[in-house]
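Our preliminary data section would be incomplete without showing what the modeling component actually yields. Below, a chain of 179 amino acids is followed by its predicted structure, encoded as tokens that our downstream tools consume directly.
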Amino acid sequence: LRKDAKEEKDHSASRSTKFLEPGNAYAKHWGPKDDPNNGIVYFVQTGYRENTRTLTMTVFTAFLLSFSMIPILRNEKQIGYVVIGGTRLLCDTVGVHITVMSEGPCIDLENHINEYFAYVEETVLNKLDANQFHDKYLKPYIDIHSRKSFDKLRKISGPANLSNEIAPNVQNGDYSVLN
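Predicted structure:
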């Protein structure tokens, strides 16, 4: 191995995620200035990945956001032509992300995402009492993760690993091998 390749291999084996202390943020802006397409990966780190409680709450938070993220950011606000989000697992940490591709400036995208989080906090977390929250969000989440619902979901949605079910489409080769 070349020296630099060995160093790169050693570095990749020891990769880890930078843990941000609560309340801290990190932003990096780059890309060609004349490119009309912009994107943002807005990531909220929730804690260490090996912490079961943190991981569970992060997955539930992503579920909670899934009810309104696309309808508000993509359809209503139309901040980008692609809006996706969910749980993001890094080497050592976990969090939720909202990723947007747009023609708008990244700072505007970040502001819209900040407004969206404020909206979720105000309309979901501050306006619902415990019973309403349980009925509207917690019970459906638990139902999805119960065995009975998973079996029902699998029957109507197809196999979990679709690539295992697809036969290859081969155009060249021996007919006897293809059949």
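Residues 1-12, 160-164, 166-175 have pLDDT under 50 and may be disordered. The first helix runs from residue 3 to 13. Preliminary results of this kind motivate Aim 1 of the renewal.
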